[in-house]
Amino acid sequence: MDSQPLRPRYHVVCRECRVERLVDGRDAAVAAEREHAKETGHRVVAERV
Hints:
Blueprint (H helix, E strand, L loop, with lengths): L8 E6 L5 E5 L1 H15 L3 E5 L1
Antiparallel strand pairs: 1-2, 1-3
Protein name: DUF1059 domain-containing protein
């Protein structure tokens, strides 16, 4: 059975509202952080899980 390499997952959380996401890969995490921050001006963090 072939297994594909797992992409690291990231937990993206807004520090100022209830937005929270689990995304695959660093690029997706950075994009989610920037998009929410740009739309709202909120502080957002992402951490690998």
